[in-house]
Amino acid sequence: MDEIVNLVAQQVGLPADKAQMAVNVILNHLKSKAPALSGPLDTLLAGGDGRGAGGLGDLAGGLGGLGDMFKK
User: Fold this and answer.
1) What is the pTM of this model?
2) Of 39, 48, 57, 68, which has the fewest Cβ atoms less than 10 A away?
């Protein structure tokens, strides 16, 4: 997760604490709108290799729920 926070901080020009808050808001929103993404996102952000259960395969499968997020 530090890598994402650093990218946001650098590319948007935010201090690290504000970038951390922004990343958390986005992740929490994604998780609330597509609960199937929660486990895979947590695994990847914790440094998982994406190969086992809860990895990239599950994340890709959970992306099907993103379409519903934009239907409002």
Assistant:
1) 0.63
2) 68
Q: What tens digit of pLDDT does each residue of 48-72 get?
A: 654 554 444 445 454 555 555 555 4
Q: Quote the domain boundaries for residue 6.
A: 1-25
Q: Can you give 2-71 as a three-state secondary structure string?
A: HHHHHHHHHHHCCCHHHHHHHHHHHHHHHHHHCHHHHHHHHHHHCCCCCCCCCCHHHHHHHHHHHHHHCC
- Assess whether 1 and 21 both reside in one domain: yes
Distance CA 39, CA 17 (A): 24
Summarised one tens digit per residue, pLDDT across range 31-43 is: 999 998 888 888 8
